[in-house]
Write a structure and sequence with these properties.
Elements: H1 5-10, E1 18-21, E2 24-27, H2 29-39, E3 44-47, E4 57-59, E5 62-71, E6 74-81, E7 95-101, E8 106-112, H3 117-133, H4 159-171, H5 176-187, H6 197-214
Antiparallel strand pairs: 1-2, 3-5, 4-5, 5-6, 7-8
């Protein structure tokens, strides 16, 4: 029995054409499109444009791109956010965020630069590859993408995190007692042991954002 086009594409080995970056797997778009045309020579793809004929859509949360692929009488649409090298959503203006460096045992401030045409172009072509996966090509490399991962933000807050938070509060003339009271009220907890890493990180970003506004 002859294989369906989906089976032909799904069973194709793409392992030698992928790259891994920041925990994500990327497949070469040029190779993927060439292989796709071998099965669907009449295939067409579309980069969806906004009202200004630009290939992305943006709001306060960041930018997203869309593609459509038509082949074998089917049309599938796909979308992908525009991300920086650390997989942070790129926005109109650069912004700072705080991450916890496990190796150093401390928080570090990083900057996500403003969106640019290079990042948009990469997102569009990666979106196209993901779109082709809907027809089978490389679909297996996305297996588990939509499964829940272990969320480090739900891990218990560390002593270093709390210490860093109180230092920031002190610079803003917030006493340790007042900060502790704010934490307990905000997250409805009665002890520091109940706090998560994500909650403390949110508070740190909130205080540092206030500090930048006050300058």
């Amino acid at each position: 029995m002859e294989k369906s086009n989906f089976e032909k594409l799904y069973q194709k080995d793409v392992s030698e054409k992928v790259q891994k970056k920041e925990g994500l797997t990327y497949l070469s778009w040029s190779w993927a499109w060439a292989e796709f045309l071998k099965v669907y020579p009449e295939a067409q793809y579309e980069i969806v444009k906004n009202e200004n004929y630009l290939p992305y859509f943006m709001d306060s949360s960041g930018a997203i791109v869309y593609t459509r692929v038509t082949a074998g009488g089917l049309t599938h649409e796909m979308w992908l956010p525009v991300l920086d090298y650390a997989n942070k959503p790129m926005k109109k203006e650069p912004y700072k965020y705080t991450v916890y460096n496990k190796k150093k045992g401390q928080f570090e401030e990083r900057t996500c630069k403003a969106i640019d045409s290079f990042a948009i172009n990469k997102a569009v072509m990666r979106c196209l590859v993901k779109n082709l996966a809907m027809f089978g090509l490389g679909l297996y490399i996305y297996t588990g993408e939509d499964l829940p991962e272990k969320d480090e933000t739900e891990m218990p807050a560390s002593a270093n995190q709390l210490q860093h938070l109180y230092k920031i509060a002190e610079k803003q003339e917030i006493s340790a007692e007042d900060m502790k009271q704010k934490i307990f009220e905000k997250f409805a907890v009665s002890t520091s042991k109940e706090l998560t890493s994500g909650q403390i990180t949110d508070l740190i970003n909130e205080l540092e954002g206030k500090n930048e506004t006050d300058k």
